[in-house]
Amino acid sequence: MSYEALRQFADSWGLVLMGVGFVAFVGWAFRPNSAAATRRAATSIFEEDQADG
């Protein structure tokens, strides 16, 4: 595969795939019933470390 063919693919279908991926990731973050998981992830750094005993 030549550079020109790879560049043409990236300019066309690569952009489409990245756009679809972006929409999917944003949709996953804002899906219904994800507030609890998001809140848990955001506050996990403030929890005490249970491994220290």
Description:
There is one protein chain. The protein has 53 residues and is an all-alpha fold. It has two helices and no strands. The longest helix has 27 residues, at 3-29.
Short description:
With 53 residues, this protein is an all-alpha fold.
Quick tags:
mainly alpha, 53 residues, 68% helix
Mean pLDDT: 88
List the uncertain runs.
none
- Content of β-strand: under 5%
- Gyration radius over CA: 20 Å
Dominant shape = elongated
Write the H/E string, N to C: HH
Helix fraction by DSSP (H/I, runs of at least 4): 55-70%
- The number of E-state strands comes to 0
Largest sheet: none
Q: Structural class, from helix and strand content?
A: mainly alpha
Measure the end-to-end span.
Answer: 58 Å
The number of helical segments is: 2
